[in-house]
Amino acid sequence: MSRLHRVIFFAIATTVVAFGQGYFPHVTWGGGWQMGVRVVNLDSATTAAATLSFYDNSGNPLPVPINGTIVAGVYNFTIPPSGAAALSLPADGTSVEGWARLDTNGGSGAGLVMFTYNTTGKPDFSATIPFIPDGSGCIIPLPASTPQYAVPFDNSSGNATAIAFANTDSSNASPTVELYDESGTLIASAQVSLTAKGHSSFMLTDKFPAAAGNRGTIIVQTDIKKVGVLALLVLPNGTITTLLPLGQ
Known about the structure:
The protein has two domains: 2-133, Hypothetical Protein Tm1070, Chain: A, CATH 2.60.290.11; 140-247, Hypothetical Protein Tm1070, Chain: A, CATH 2.60.290. Helices cover 4% and strands 50% of the residues. The protein is built from two helices and 22 strands. A six-stranded mixed sheet has the order 13-22-14-19-16-17, with no helix packed on it. Strand 5 and strand 6 form a beta hairpin. The chain starts with a helix and ends with a strand.
């Protein structure tokens, strides 16, 4: 969403990628944002074959200009033993958003993603966009009777919270999102519709006006093995903090 881009992704974001397969729940480039991907092969004897697949909000393959060449949503590359690959997506052109997955075969793939926005006379703000390994849904486990995420939010004192969803499955998904204030009172609830392989991102107050001036917890009830969630907190001075989801 354009407003999310204006507020959130004036940023540099770095993420260490776990070995094997997984995804980034939000990626963006263009409109002033430059995206870089660095992938390394920690295996000293075996070449790693890597694939980056990009999807738009509707779940369609997303054409991407990587290292000056436009590819049709899928970029294949190899990394020599103990080697590395550097991929770059430009800041010029119309802003684009979606999500991406990384698959590696052979070797031991790891890496990071970086978003950069340069503003003359101002420092670059930074945040982390976590890589989510397949089947885990999140980084920090939280036992629960129902598959769900718990994410803190803070829209008090000029702060702003944004949230992004990525549906990694080949069928549609409609996670239920509930907002609770600090007293544990339910203040808002709605479903977010995601097409197969789709993506959605928005400022929390755009969909949940009751979040304005409040802080508390976002509960997302969904199949966390298929739908990824990421939230970001923006302070009044522009500092960005990643709000990592807790999940089953």
